[in-house]
Write a structure and sequence with these properties.
With about 350 residues, the protein is an alpha+beta fold. It is built from nine helices and 20 strands. The protein has helices spanning about 40-45, 90-100, 105-115, 135-145, 165-180, 190-195, 215-220, 225-230, 320-325; strands at about 1-10, 15-25, 30, 55-60, 60-65, 75, 150-155, 185-190, 200-205, 210-215, 235-240, 245-250, 250-255, 260-270, 275, 285-295, 300-310, 310-320, 330-335, 345. Helix 2 packs parallel to helix 4, helix 3 (about 105-115) packs antiparallel against helix 4 (about 135-145) and helix 4 packs parallel to helix 5. The longest helix has 18 residues, at about 165-180. It is elongated and about 70 Å long. It starts with a strand and ends with a strand. Bound molecules: adenosine-5'-triphosphate. Adenosine-5'-triphosphate (ATP) binds near residues 12, 36, 37 and 38. InterPro entries: AAA+_ATPase, ABC_SmlMolc_Importer, ABC_transporter-like_ATP-bd, ABC_transporter-like_CS, Mo/tungstate-bd_C_term_dom, P-loop_NTPase, Transp-assoc_OB_typ2. Pfam families: ABC_tran, TOBE_2. This is Molybdate/tungstate transport system ATP-binding protein.
């Protein structure tokens, strides 16, 4: 549905380099990466809002590289919703219908369906300026989808919302995608969002794609240290591989799958580590001894940093486990994990 071939965008001080990407018809694809990695530029080049220096963009089989934004067949939803402030909710939603010559029963039914699914019935005649952030974002989703675009581009649609609205809009995005079959192409720097919504993701780093794949694959089997850290692995170590095991920072670790001998990395998710002060690590777990360096309150969970030899591990613990195990900074602890949790690459 969307194809980018050898896409380059050249700006003073920043370049997007040789992006090649295929997004399938009806897919929910998320382009993820840290702030400033070029995600919005790639999305805007699909929309025709940023000129590319090289490459070709195809939408629904049509080469749109040279077409203006309004002829590309894409809808767009921004982080800050960009509604027309002088128009009502319904006027905003139906604004594009006339331009796209979409009057008639089918368009009216679609608008009513969107108003209903997005919970806008009660506020349809209101002006948009005094709506809550969540309501405004629901209106902008309805406006973008009212003209039935084959592709909906979403530029960080949740990041300006407070946490309650974020969950609500996230769930609505999932429903809309499942019901409409529209291809969704979303940009976000929040991997958890992509994990909840997307079928596949592409990870952008400094203007270049570093890994593309099914979201679970990228989550569990990152191919580079950068992707591993971006998806929250937290424990990424340079390692030397020998038959059946990895050695890193002087620690030996069995490998769940055969890996070619030589150098590489091992990575562990912080939630896969178990900490204990009294040796209470299951016998079949890999186990190292170390000292707690810091205990950091992250809100719902605690991140506990433990040094074992010269390796710094980071584990996540919920409040109850932390209280029950009475782990504090400076304590001697065991760090344990199942060999199956080790990702080697
Ligand atoms: N019109 C422009 N002219 C020059 N530089 C630009 C322009 N637009 C964006 N940039 C720069 O290009 C880089 C990538 O910007 P972009 O907005 O695509 O990043 P992003 O990954 O979407 O980041 P964020 O998550 O913060 O939105 C940034 O350094 C930005 O300052």
């Amino acid at each position: 549905m969307i194809r980018m071939e050898h896409l380059d965008i050249v700006l003073p001080g920043f370049c997007v380099r040789d992006v090649n990407l295929d997004v399938a018809d009806g897919e929910f694809f998320a382009l993820i990466g840290p702030t400033g990695s070029g995600k919005s530029l790639v999305l805007e080049s699909v929309a025709g809002l940023v000129p590319q220096a090289r490459g070709r963009i195809t939408v629904a089989g049509r080469d749109v590289t040279a077409l203006p934004p309004e002829r590309r067949g894409v809808g767009i939803v921004y982080q800050d919703n960009a509604l027309f402030p002088h128009l009502s909710v319904m006027e905003n939603i139906t604004y594009g219908l006339r331009y796209h010559r979409l009057a008639g029963d089918e368009a009216a039914r679609r608008v009513e369906w969107l108003v209903d699914v997005l919970g806008l019935s009660r506020i349809r005649e209101r002006g948009v300026c005094n709506l809550s952030g969540g309501e405004q974002q629901r209106v902008s989703l309805a406006r973008a989808l009212a003209v039935n675009p084959p592709v909906l581009l979403l530029d960080e649609p949740l990041s300006a919302l407070d946490p309650n609205f974020r969950e609500e809009i996230r769930a609505l995005l999932k429903t809309l995608h499942a019901e409409l079959g529209t291809t969704f192409f979303m940009v976000t720097h929040d991997f958890a969002e992509a994990l909840f919504l997307a079928e596949r993701v592409g990870v952008l780093r400094d203007g270049a794609l570093e890994q593309v794949g099914p979201v679970r694959d990228v989550f569990c089997r990152p191919r580079t240290p950068f992707v591993a850290e971006f998806v929250g692995m937290k424990n990424v170590f340079e390692a030397h591989f020998a038959p059946g095991e990895a050695v890193f920072h002087g620690l030996r670790c069995p490998l769940p799958h055969p890996v070619a001998d030589g150098c590489g990395h091992v990575a562990l998710r912080p939630e896969d580590l178990v900490l204990s002060r009294d040796g209470g690590i299951p016998d079949h777990y890999v186990r190292y001894e170390g000292n707690v360096r810091t205990v950091c309150d992250l809100g719902f969970v605690y991140e506990v940093a433990v040094r074992c030899g010269s390796a710094d591990f980071r584990a996540l613990m919920d409040r109850r486990s932390l209280m029950e195990s009475d782990i504090r900074s400076g304590d001697a602890v065991s760090v344990g994990f199942s060999a199956g949790a080790v990702h080697a690459f």
